[in-house]
Amino acid sequence: MLTAFGQNTYANRVGRVEDRLAARGLDALVVNFPDNINYLNGFDSLGFLWYQALIVSPALDEPVFLTRTSEEPCTWELSVARDARFYDIATEDPLEIVAEILQAIGHGAGRVGLEMQAFTLPAAAYERLRALLPEAEFEDASTVVAEERLIKTPEEIACQRSAARMADHAMRTAFEALRPGISEVELAGIVARALGEAGSEYAAISPMVAAGRRSAMTHAMPQRQVLAEGDVVILEHAGVCNRYHAVMMRTAVLGRPSPRVREVASLLSEAFAAALETIRPGVPVGEANSACNAVLDRLDLARTRVHRIGYSLGLAYPPSWLEAMIVDESDPHVFAPNMSFTIEPNLSLYDEGFGVKLGDTVLCTEGGAESLSEVAPELVVID
């Protein structure tokens, strides 16, 4: 059995999730998010490209894992599952199996939690399950497992620290490779190779590189555009250890930066530091966003922010590495020890033809915020 943690760790996680189900008055939970399945039984495979589910209920001796037949070897070798069902994608309907299991444990007319926000639970599957269990009461329980994941254990934090060293190595390698004439896709490939050399698994989002005017396009994926002298270059990638991610973002300039680019980047570094200074246990997460904006507003830059300042981070599979907590005034969470999240007050000055990225994976400790990155949070000038 090749899993990141031992059997007891996964069993304890399941027990805590069952406690959360009881608190919400739910009889069972059908887990579809691949990262949540990994969290509860260690399963690590691309099998989520087809329907798979983990059924959790106190009425079961242990969760029942359902996946396609081709995933059977991965199930026994790469998870702690001991009760697993396999379906033939050509001849069997997996939703019928889910319904049969729920019926068998007495929940055919019960209150069943579904991860309705999961990209792996398409509308057709939801409607099919409703038709198969017309007497069941389904409730959106997308955050049940996610809330349990917000506070990391020392073992999980160790994985993220390791992932952060991988991300640091790849960013330094990118800086060394930056030069006029290199293309965005070539630079992204260098980053990907450096991540692999450092021991990283594949990330939920592939390395991002955008240069020149495209640096104002925060989520632009690398193209064959060739970098030129004077270009602003934004980079974003994640190191991954046992599926635990550590994300980092930086900005570089090829040659001498313009006074405006230097001014904006300098203030962004100050705003980033101000956000970190607010982070400590018991503080509402939105205060980090407010502190950042207060600094940026000195140059009327808060309006150029492209999104919230961050989000909780940990286990992830494609297509996203975001967890449940959003670091924004609209989110009710408060910072707590061993929460890990990004701080990334990225700017897009589209009308001025450039953008600036700056972001780290951050840990809330008893004493405040700790960035897991070692690369300085400042503009990098490539002479």
What do these coordinates show?
The structure is a single chain. This protein is of the alpha/beta class and 383 residues long. The protein has 2 domains: 7-148, Creatinase/prolidase N-terminal domain (Creatine Amidinohydrolase, Chain A, domain 1, 3-Layer(aba) Sandwich); 154-382, Creatine Amidinohydrolase (Alpha-Beta Complex). It is 33% helix and 23% strand. It contains 10 helices and 17 strands. It has helices at residues 7-24, 34-41, 72-77, 94-104, 123-132, 144-148, 154-177, 184-197, 259-278, 286-296, and strands at 28-31, 53-56, 64-68, 84-87, 111-114, 137-140, 208-211, 232-241, 244-254, 310-317, 320-327, 340-343, 347-349, 354-356, 360-365, 368-371, 380-382. A 6-stranded mixed β-sheet has the order 4-3-2-1-5-6. A 4-stranded mixed β-sheet has the order 7-8-9-17. Strands 12-15-16 form a 3-stranded antiparallel β-sheet, with helices on one face. Strand 2 and strand 3 form a beta hairpin. Helix 9 runs antiparallel to helix 10 (286-296). The longest helix is centred in the middle third of the chain and has 24 residues, at 154-177. The radius of gyration is 22 Å and the shape is elongated. The termini are far apart.
Please outline the helices and strands:
Elements: H1 7-24, E1 28-31, H2 34-41, E2 53-56, E3 64-68, H3 72-77, E4 84-87, H4 94-104, E5 111-114, H5 123-132, E6 137-140, H6 144-148, H7 154-177, H8 184-197, E7 208-211, E8 232-241, E9 244-254, H9 259-278, H10 286-296, E10 310-317, E11 320-327, E12 340-343, E13 347-349, E14 354-356, E15 360-365, E16 368-371, E17 380-382
Parallel strand pairs: 1-5, 3-4, 5-6, 9-17
Antiparallel strand pairs: 1-2, 2-3, 7-8, 8-9, 10-11, 12-15, 13-14, 15-16
